[in-house]
Design brief:
Elements: H1 3-20, E1 40-42, E2 48-50, E3 56-58, H2 59-62, E4 67-68, E5 92-94, H3 95-110, E6 113-119, H4 124-135, H5 143-146, E7 172-179, E8 184-185, H6 208-223, E9 226-229, E10 232-238, E11 246-248
Parallel strand pairs: 2-11, 4-6
Antiparallel strand pairs: 1-2, 3-5, 6-7, 7-8, 7-10, 9-10
């Protein structure tokens, strides 16, 4: 089987799994009225898919100083629609990642900054949504905002869209800094989810201030156990993530962790 087709088939399966299984460990079955058991399956490619949300927490409770701007719940993102699986404008993370992020928040609050969260846990069905959108090369509604220098057909080959995301493992967060003294988001020299070299953390063709702002965020995240991504200044994953081989399927909502 063609590898790309196989991945897409896997994702479609994951989408059915997400909608057909209980959304969380506290979901209730129609037959018994009792809590449904979490379900885990291993697909033919060796990927573990799970709807067990028992180790996840609401970021608004775990990191109360963080500001939420959940882009995939809105239409202001590279697709131009609300993304599948984002049922509420909330952020979820594993309890381990949330605890580490609280340490980051506390440190940066002392410096006059608050964390602003764009995305955290991302259900596998949302990645399916991205894959399907990327295959529709005629849908370029948001191109001028997020990938003006790229032909959409290049998003797969260049790795901007993939069949799986570390976000689905629950310990990855996309974020920036909010300056409490100015009431504005810090200028990072590039916007969230921009597909291009300017998004690389070490990109130097920006102002010294913009680069320094990126480093404030980066150094705080690294000092509390997160690792960066070489292509996105906003993206960090807990280095010791608790589920390195599991991709979760429950939706982004308060109910998933209630």
């Amino acid at each position: 089987m063609n590898k790309k087709i196989g991945f897409i088939s896997l994702l479609l399966t994951a989408g059915v799994f997400a909608s057909g299984c209980a959304g969380s460990a506290s979901a209730v079955t129609e037959e018994t009225g009792e809590a449904a058991e979490p379900t885990t399956v291993v697909d033919e490619y060796g990927y573990t898919l799970s709807n067990d949300s028992s180790d996840f927490v609401l970021l608004s409770e775990a990191v109360p100083d963080a500001i939420l701007e959940i882009r995939y719940y809105s239409t202001y993102n590279f697709v131009g629609d609300r993304i599948d699986g984002y049922e509420e404008p909330v952020a979820l993370l594993t309890s381990e990642a949330a605890a580490a992020l609280r340490e980051v928040s506390d440190e940066l609050m002392e410096q006059g900054y608050r964390l602003l969260i764009y995305d955290a846990y991302r259900p596998q069905v949302a990645v399916t949504n991205f894959v399907n959108w990327a295959e529709d090369v005629d849908d370029v509604r948001m191109q001028e905002y997020f990938y003006p220098d790229l032909d959409k057909s290049e998003l797969f080959p260049q790795g901007y869209i993939d069949a799986h995301s570390g976000h689905s493992r629950g310990s990855t967060v996309d974020l920036t800094l909010f300056d409490m003294s100015t009431g504005q988001v810090l200028d990072m020299g590039g916007v969230f989810d921009y597909f291009g070299e300017i998004s690389h953390p070490d990109y130097t063709e920006i102002t010294d201030e913009q680069y320094a702002n990126r480093m404030i965020l980066r150094e705080a995240m690294l000092s509390h156990g997160f690792r960066p991504l070489a292509t996105e200044w906003w993206h960090f994953t807990l280095d010791d993530e608790p589920y390195p081989d599991t991709y979760f399927t429950f939706p982004v909502s308060e109910e998933s962790v209630s």
